[in-house]
Amino acid sequence: MQDVLKLAQNAPDIASLFEADTARAQTFSAQACGMLFDYSKTALTEASLKALLALAKDVPAQRAAMFSGEKINTTEERAVLHTALRAPEGNKVLVEGVDVMPEVQATRARMVAFCNDVRAGRFKGQGGAITDVVNIGIGGSDLGPDMATLALAPYADGPRTHFVSNVDGAHIADTLKGLDAATTLVLVASKTFGTIETMTNAETARVWMARTVKDPAAQFVAISSNEARAGAFGIPPERVFGFEDWVGGRYSLWGPIGLSIMLAIGPDDFAAFLAGAAELDAHFCEADLAENLPILLALVGLWHHQAMGYASRVVLPYDQRLEKLPDYLQQLEMESNGKRVSKDGKALEHGSGPIVWGAPGTNGQHAFYQLLHQGTEVAPAEFLVAMRGHEPDLAHHHALLVSNCLAQSQAMMQGRDLEAARALCADLGFEGAALEAQAAQRVFDGGRPSTTLAYEMLTPAMLGKIVALYEHRVFVEGVILGINSFDQFGVELGKELSTGLSPVLSGAQSSEGLDSSTAALVGYYQSVNAEG
């Protein structure tokens, strides 16, 4: 890492790199799996890229360990095998000497049969064929399916899908409003069937449904590994779809957690989604490091955050249907690599994961791009854009969308100097001191780094490739940083404290022993509710 840090201290101006090398875009880009990854609009040079590739020397061995079922989640002593959920038929994956693929394929076959029954109207609600599906989950049980069903809306020919995650009653109230309980199917997605937010929402949905139908549990499905708890809720084993502890929540949309996706787009397109991810898996395992998309994406991320010191990265999909991709990647990356210690429990020598945020273009252009172009904080931008849209009669819209995407990355890199700003203001009629003041407002530093991931069209297969690409990017960054990307103990403390505060809020327990701020806020809550 020291070699990389030294090179970063003398990183060149990005525009000057293009002036010095007319073939830079070809040198600093890679193509695979129907995607073009252009990372030329960064300050990377051949020397810094070589130094970064040297950091990835341990990735092949760790990659092999992950795909072979070794327990690389060392803190929880678990294998990490979300890749098995999308592995092609005929693959063999061993965990403690047992091939897990037959069970994976059997569960998928059950999902397919159930989805076909729902979509064909053979599985009915108590008021007729299922018209709406409500997925109740949180975190990985919500963000992935919600993102994917929106992204694949052109392929949705099944029941309408809705998602509830927040324990705020407004979320479930607004979602259920207008739905017909007699034709609604509810999926309760919780591995333990005990997640408090999910189960609170599930019970509310059951009460809502019971007002209309005699047997509400008959229209519930459990996506859970706890068949006993699901049974106590009233859901029989044939409508319980479980998955193993070697599938982390934020990596789980490929299996039963993806049931809502399959219900929306159908088993065939869901199979294409899996196949796309499997194709990217094969590329990740087989391609040379210097041409390997997940490796390169990870190294660019490390260059920007650890070497250049940029605190965040912004994800900018120029596709309205990828509206929720930034939220999904936020969890994927920040829950995975937002750590402070290495695998052996020692403090990290370098920063871990960056802050991840974003929104679709062109909406972001009229919101936060001002800061991206002229703010004092630099946020490397990651653009994603399809070359074709799904609306051929609106091709002029898509051409405008693509031109905006390309122009933004160009503007971030090139900027506008004071001389050009003065000329612009002179053309606008400004003179003297007013010209100088106005020109200063129109200077763009430039040198703002970005990458672009371009692809033909957002199909189920392409979405699978994109998600798998980012999954493996997280893995590679974790290997290089020496951290465990597959636990999430940082999620737990707030949950533990929340459980203890509930009886305090209700007045069943005293607030004695709480810090003065929390005690005062509890008192305010109690006073407002006493008045109400």
Q: What would your notes on this structure say?
A:
The chain has 532 residues and is α/β, with parallel strands linked by helices. 47% of the residues lie in helices and 11% in strands. It is built from 21 helices and 15 strands. It has helices at residues 2-9, 14-20, 24-27, 46-55, 59-67, 101-120, 143-151, 169-176, 196-210, 227-233, 259-265, 267-286, 293-307, 325-337, 369-374, 395-414, 418-427, 432-441, 460-481, 492-506, 516-531, and strands at 29-32, 35-38, 94-95, 98-99, 124-125, 128-129, 132-136, 160-164, 184-189, 220-223, 240-241, 312-318, 355-358, 381-386, 450-455. The strands form four sheets. It has a six-stranded mixed sheet with strand order 1-2-15-14-12-13, with helices on both faces. Helix 11 crosses helix 12 (267-286), helix 13 crosses helix 19 (460-481) and helix 14 (325-337) packs parallel to helix 19. It starts with a helix and ends with a helix. The mean pLDDT is 96.
Nutshell version of this structure?
This protein has 532 residues and is of the alpha/beta class. It is built from 21 helices and 15 strands.
Task: Label this structure with key terms.
15 strands, 6-stranded mixed beta sheet, 532 residues, 5-stranded parallel beta sheet, alpha/beta
